[in-house]
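Open question from group meeting: does this chain pack into something compact, or does most of it stay loose? Before anyone orders reagents, we agreed to write out a predicted structure and look at it together. Recording both the input and the output here so the notebook holds the full record.
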Amino acid sequence: MQPINSKLIDDLLEEAKNELRMRKTRVLKPESYSGVRPLLNAMFPGTYIRPHRHGERSDEYWLVLRGKIAPVYFTNRGNIKNYQIVSESSEEVSPLIHLPEKEFHSLVVIDHPAVILEITQGPYNPKTYKEFAPWAPLESDVEGSKRYLDNLISILNIT
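Structure tokens returned:
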């Protein structure tokens, strides 16, 4: 596995800056790997991550390596259930976030670019890895996803 260091994080942020979705991921283990699968996700404020959930035995963990994010948890109908603001240097909240299986979630990047280490159980199967929330716009719907994200940020009262 490639070492996670400042250079890797800086390089990934540089790549994310040039992406239409304002984020870039780097898989650190092959898709077929059946053990714990680490993935780096570099994101800029304004990136939209469509709310989704993972199936049984698919808990997910995020470790904030840089920046500040707000993980958001939703009910099955799309109402906000809970959220918290987390950074790599937060003293009140651990930078390690647990996302339980079968719970719809997303995140908002706050202020500056953020990088998280996502940890899931392999192997990766793109057909069953995540179920997108039917009440949230597709990521390809640029206008709809921007409106949704702006509304979410307004409801959470974060900038």
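Observations to bring back to the group:
Strands lie at 23-27, 36-43, 52-53, 60-74, 80-83, 86-87, 96-99, 104-121, 131-132.
The domain at 6-156 is CATH 2.60.120.10 (Jelly Rolls).
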